[in-house]
Amino acid sequence: MKMKIHLYNTMTRQKEEFVPLKAGEVKLYSCGPTVYGDPHIGNMRMYFTVDLLKSVLQYVGEYDVDHVMNITDVGHLTDDGDQWEDKMEKWARREQKTVREVARMYEDNFKKYSLELQLVPPRDYTRATEYIDEQIDMIKVLIEKWYTYIIEDDGIYMDTSKVADYGKLAQLDFEGMNSEHRGDGAKIDSSKKKSLSDFALWKCSPKNEQRSMEWIFDGSRAWELITDDNRDSLTDEEMILRGFPGRHIECSAMATKELGEQIDIHTWWVDHVTVHHTNEIAQAECSIWCDADHPWVNRWVHGQFLNIDWGKVSKSKWDDLSIPWIIQKGYSPLDLRYFYLTANYRSFLDFSREAMDAAAKTRKNLIKKISKLLTKESIADFDDFVPMALYDELSACIADDLDTVSLLSKYHTWVSAWCEQAVDVLLFDQKVTKLWLFAWVKALMEQEDVQAPLAVRVLAEKRMEAKKNKERALADSLRDEIKAAWWEAKDTSNGYDLVPLSG
After folding, report:
1. Per residue in 83-134, pLDDT tens?
2. How far, in Å, CA of 267 to CA of 262, rounded?
3. Could you count the other beta carbons within 10 Å of the beta carbon of residue 207?
4. Of 204, 237, 321, 474, whose CA is between 20 and 30 Å from 463?
5. What is the homologous superfamily of the domain 24-303 according to CATH?
6. CB 120 within 8 A of CB 65
7. What confidence tens digit (pLDDT) does each residue in 291-316 have?
8. How would you classify residue 340: left for phi > 0, otherwise alpha for psi between -120 and 50, otherwise beta?
9. Long-range contacts for 371-376 (Cβ within 8 Å, ≥24 apart)?
10. Average pLDDT, the chain
11. Is 326 in contact with 306 (CB distance < 8 Å)?
């Protein structure tokens, strides 16, 4: 049954019924990865949240969702604390590759890890390097409307004092943040900016320095990437503004290009509220027609961080906390997905090995509990099952600002006595939470009929040979490889049996 969905709106600081701009359709934009390294499990929590939101919109609200996510593959200063450090350039040097090669490699890794976590891809991943023209066009509109100024040898800046409602998303103290007593870690001498809140739309490359990714800021060929082949042909005027986009402009330009001048929902981390999303709004709403009744974004949805040791998970501190690390430690990506479900998306979630162990154990117990209620015959026609009363209760939980905590509670409480309730949980999970409970329940119930793939059987034979030769380290390594493929080699008096893991 189609249900009304209520979501917390960062702009109004309250939970509100979600009403799309156009009946039956939702335009959803998500900030995506900056591909200079592999995403860690802190990053992946927000991608999971977007995936969950999309599923709820599709299967509970019954909307058609048009989802776009950006890929930041252009080198620039990636956060306000950077002191002239281009992370794309830095990681390219570390990997001994070009910036473009590094970007493609980590983009492919991100997409691989997303699929392992069962995330449904957006309609389009928009690469920043493929929308340089649109970014420059938006900057030109802002220039024509007198919202900008140039700092020589630095770049084109947005004059936030000319934006009447600048900071409305973050509810900023505009006068306070521009006080001379406030230190904000500005990347340039603050005396060069009219206000400390002003931000770069376009950054000029430093003089006498050649970066890997530079573009021409010119009307006739704004899109053109500067290379060794065309550098000598550029005029002095073109070289003055050679450079790269500021870190905020790409999302405004790409979201508007792909989804139009009004978007239903824009998502990302809560720390984007005060700077990145605040500046996105200023750019977009000053360059297109918007007013209080027709904002650029209708609903802002922000997720909270994953913590470890009481601090935010970040690439600089926890570079190894990745999806491959999770698998290497013996967990399924579905265990991580279950772990994410144990807290509301707007609450901090504390990561630990103990918490992951608990999530893995609880997920497996749920599978075992359901399998005891059902028979092979009862799930034979699973695709034809009609949801019962519990399905609507599960929908009501998740429709209330993605209340996954109450949802999981109902999963475990209601899966206790009746086959119909267990089937409702399986049906709901198949569409929304995507722990793939049905597949694991079926595998557990039918494991005696399941034959391991040839690759797993080969690993098992090699393990037996290693054990005979008393090569314990090799045998243990092969056992771990078998486990990573979701099988277990159980030693018997006659050799071994291969049994599929239950989750």
Report:
1. 445 666 666 666 666 777 888 888 999 999 999 899 999 999 999 989 988 9
2. 14
3. 8
4. 321
5. HUPs (3.40.50.620)
6. no
7. 778 899 999 999 999 988 655 555 44
8. alpha
9. 371/441, 371/444, 371/445, 373/415, 373/417, 373/418, 373/419, 373/422, 374/419, 374/422, 374/423, 374/441, 374/445, 375/445, 376/445, 376/446
10. 82
11. no
Domain coordinates in residue numbering, the chain: 24-303, 308-445, 449-500
The two structure tokens encoding residue 42:
């802190």
For tokens 């003089």, name the residue. Answer: 207
Chain length of the chain? 503
Tokens of 201: 């739309």
SS3 call for 383: helix
Residue 382 and residue 358 in contact, taking contact as beta carbons nearer than 8 Å: no
Establish how many alpha carbons lie within 13 A of residue 296's alpha carbon, considering only the half-sphere containing its beta carbon: 24
pLDDT of residue 87: 65
The answer to whether residues 378 and 422 touch, using CB atoms and an 8 Å cutoff, is no
CA distance 381 to 43: 38
Residue 400 pLDDT class (50, 70, 90 cuts): very high
397 in Cβ contact with 424 (< 8 Å): no
CB atoms within 10 A of CB 291: 7
CB under 8 Å to 168, separation ≥6 — which residues?
Answer: 11, 281
SS3 (DSSP) at 500: strand
Query: For residue 145, with 0-12 CB atoms within 10 Å meaning exposed, 13-18 middle and 19 or more buried, which class applies?
Result: exposed
